[in-house]
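Sorry, explain these C-alpha cells?

***
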Amino acid sequence: MSAATVENPHGDEPDPLLTSANRLSQMLPGYRVEIIGGAITVAPPRDGPHADALTSLMIPFLAAGLHGDESKVLQGIGLWLPGGPEDYTIPDLAVVDADYDDHRAENATYDPGVFRLVLEVTSSNYQNDLRHKVAAYAYAKIPVYVILDRRHGRVRVLTEPVGGTYDRHEAYAPGQQAVLPVSIGAEVTLDVAELVKASQSRP
C-alpha cells in the first residue's frame, strides 16, 4: 500500500505528508508507516517468523558487544532521510552510535550520521526493501545495509554507498556465513541457514 498524499477531509488542500503519515499510524496500529521518495508506504504487521528471524538476528550483534558504551543495537528506531523534505524510515534493526539521542531529527527520528548499520527483514512488500530502501539508504550514506530476503532465502549485505546505490552487494545462501564489515564496531558473522529457517512459515 502506498500513497503520495492523503486528502484532508476538512479542506481542499492535501495535508503535509508527515501529517498524513502520522494519521495513518494512528488509524493502523501495528502497521509500519514510512515516507520514501516523497511517497507514503505502509507495511503490514510482522508475522511470527518475521519476529523470530529478527530476534535471531539480534543475538550475534549482542554477543559481539555492540549494545554497550560505544554503540547500541535497536529495533524500530526512526531514521530521517535526506532524499526528501519529509522522508523517513523505521528499520527493523539498527546499530547506532551510543550518543544517538543527541542527534534527534524530525518526527521522532534520528540523523543518519549516527547509523552504522540498518537491517530489514522482508515482508509481503519485499520490493520496498530490495529497491526503494536501497536507494534511500545509499543516498543517506548508511555504511552497511543488511537484508534478510525471505522470498529468495538469502542474506544480502550492501556496502560502499555512492549516490543512490551501493557499489558492493554480496548475497549469501544457506550453508554460507555472512561476515559483516568490522566498521560497525565489532566482528559479526551471520549464519544464513539459521536465519532463513527462522524466517519461514511452518507448513
